[in-house]
Amino acid sequence: MYADLHCHSHFSDGTEAPERLVALALEKQLSHLALTDHDCTHGVEQLWRHLTPNQAPVEPAISSIEPNADHAPLYLLAGVEISCDWNGLEIHVVGLLEDPAAAELQTLLSAQQRRRRERVAAIASKLDSAGIAGLSEALDTLPAAALTRSHIADFLVQRGACKSREKAFKHFLGRRGKAFVAAQWCDIPSGVAAIRAAGGIAVLAHPSRYPLTRSKLMRLLGDFRDAGGEAMEVSCGNLDPLAKKRLIDLAAMFELYYSCGSDFHTPQAQWTAIGKFPKLEPSAIKNAIWEHPKWHSIVSAGRRVDA
Ligand code: AMP
Ligand code: MN
Ligand code: MN
Ligand code: MN
């Protein structure tokens, strides 16, 4: 078992096509890969069109956390990462999905994509006023179905308005930037409900990345669980092993299954390569997300790629 359950393609803010992510996962001998683009499932749909359904998956043994044996298949899972509002803070909820086409989910994702386009338009007009034209035209040429501020930051760097993505956030896109526009995301109960309506498991993404005290983080976990959330990421790219231990303790306290994923966006970021994150130790495996009762139906509804 070697599962990376969080990554992005160029349908959101990643740089690679979904097929390239599959190739990287095969190279790393992953057993499972979930594509979890921000607020869209276009990448999943593209992959699914070209691969045959995984009728009767022959699963690798789930007792180990080792790379796949040579020539073992790679299982692809449908996923998404939904941006949610929690008391004014942006919280990300990953969904591992049985039916990515489910109507309730797609209705919510369409609304999120529309809000993203509206936000881009509002930012574009602020940039226009600052003498930087052409944002909307530039973004129209991208394959992205979910436009993010990272795309806008790249545009500002390409236009020579900023030296780096970080500076673009500092001077333009961040809360104190001159082109800041607040986002309007769905709340956690709506995001989780849409994932569950798609036969999915809702996973709280990268809990250690939110600017929260321990007591506020515990409130978030309580609210997430009350909304029907069932898992959280205890390991992700760029996480130190001590933080992982704290997250495992929190997940156990709130009876959430343990998930893990790289949050891969681009091969240029070495610390978040596909499959790169601290592994779950054997003692944590009994609460791993692949022990969740819905896991097998999610894998069965996915796709299988033979190495
Ligand atoms: P959005 O979902 O449109 O609000 O864009 C959020 C994305 O922007 C996140 O996924 C981050 O990758 C990126 N981001 C947010 N804040 C910063 C920052 N200060 N510096 C660089 N990237 C950032
Ligand atoms: Mn992202
Ligand atoms: Mn995220
Ligand atoms: Mn992500």
Could you tell me the CATH topology label of the largest domain.
TIM Barrel
Portion in beta strands: 15-25%
Which structural category do the helix and sheet elements fall into? alpha/beta
**What's the average pLDDT?**
94
So, CATH architecture of the largest domain? Alpha-Beta Barrel
In short:
The protein is of the alpha/beta class and about 300 residues long.
What is the topology?
Elements: E1 3-4, H1 18-27, E2 32-35, H2 42-50, E3 74-86, E4 89-97, H3 103-129, H4 135-140, H5 149-158, H6 165-173, E5 186-187, H7 188-197, E6 201-204, H8 214-226, E7 231-236, H9 241-253, E8 257-261, H10 295-300, E9 303-305
Parallel strand pairs: 1-2, 2-3, 3-5, 6-7, 7-8
Antiparallel strand pairs: 3-4, 3-9, 4-6
The structure holds adenosine monophosphate and manganese (II) ion (3 copies).
The site of one manganese (II) ion has 4 residues, from loops.
Protein described:
There is one protein chain. With 307 residues, the protein is an alpha/beta fold. The chain has two domains: 3-108 and 185-305, TIM Barrel; 120-173, no CATH class. Helices cover 37% and strands 16% of the residues. The protein is built from ten helices and nine strands. Strands 1, 2, 3, 4, 5, 6, 7, 8 and 9 form a nine-stranded mixed beta sheet that branches. A hairpin with a 2-residue loop joins strand 3 and strand 4 (89-97). Helix 3 crosses helix 7. The longest helix has 27 residues, at 103-129. The mean pLDDT is 94. The structure holds adenosine monophosphate and manganese (II) ion (3 copies). Residues 81, 92, 205-206 line the site of one manganese (II) ion.
